[in-house]
Amino acid sequence: MEFEGVEVVRGHVLPEWIDFNDHMNVAYYLLAFDQAVDMLWTKFGLTEEYISTHDSSTIAVESHVTWQREILEGEPYVITAQVLAYDEKRIHQFQRMYHAEKGFLAATCEWMNLHFNKDVRRVAPWPEEIRARIADFADNQGEHPWPREAGQRMRVNQALFSVKPDES
């Protein structure tokens, strides 16, 4: 089965992740996606050892989750990652959660993360070795289209009521 992105984690929906609608609760999708971020970071060398020896880590500054189809208790999933862009301090990445056996797209999560110096509590440039691994990953992740869910905003097209954004 082919999935878009690079596989970073596989798992199963745990019983404690099920809500009153008998499917995976929204909070646990974000947990699964966050765990997949950690696995991606490991590929870049951002391990627990790196964090403790360099007093640096990453912080999430924005994320956007979409839910496509439900996943039920015990069902297997695969999460893939795609680096959309990066610079000296940031990485914009996109994740897809697929049903591992049926192959359908269950959810997506778009992230903006920053490299962070824990000692001074400020954003800091990636160390060269980490940035090189991010570049290598991006160069070798394969050709995947820009995700249609990436960069989208929420809106009601035919709203009966809408508060207009302040334009000042």
Explain how this protein is built.
It contains three helices and six strands, in the order βααβββββα. The longest helix has 19 residues, at 26-44. Strands 1, 2, 3, 4, 5 and 6 form a six-stranded antiparallel beta sheet that branches. The model has no long low-confidence stretch (mean pLDDT 94). With 168 residues, it is of the alpha+beta class.
What topology does this entry show?
Elements: E1 6-12, H1 26-44, H2 48-54, E2 56-67, E3 76-86, E4 90-99, E5 105-117, E6 122-123, H3 128-140
Antiparallel strand pairs: 1-3, 2-5, 3-4, 4-5, 5-6
Could you list some keywords that capture this structure?
168 residues, alpha+beta, 6-stranded antiparallel beta sheet
Low-confidence segments, ≥5 residues, pLDDT <50?
A: none
Regarding quaternary structure, what we see is single chain
Structural class: alpha+beta
Tell me the helix content. Answer: 10-25%
Distance between the termini: 50 Å
Biggest sheet overview: 6 strands, antiparallel
Order of helices and strands: EHHEEEEEH
- Compute the number of strand runs: 6
Short description:
The chain has 3 helices and 6 strands; from the N terminus they run E-H-H-E-E-E-E-E-H.
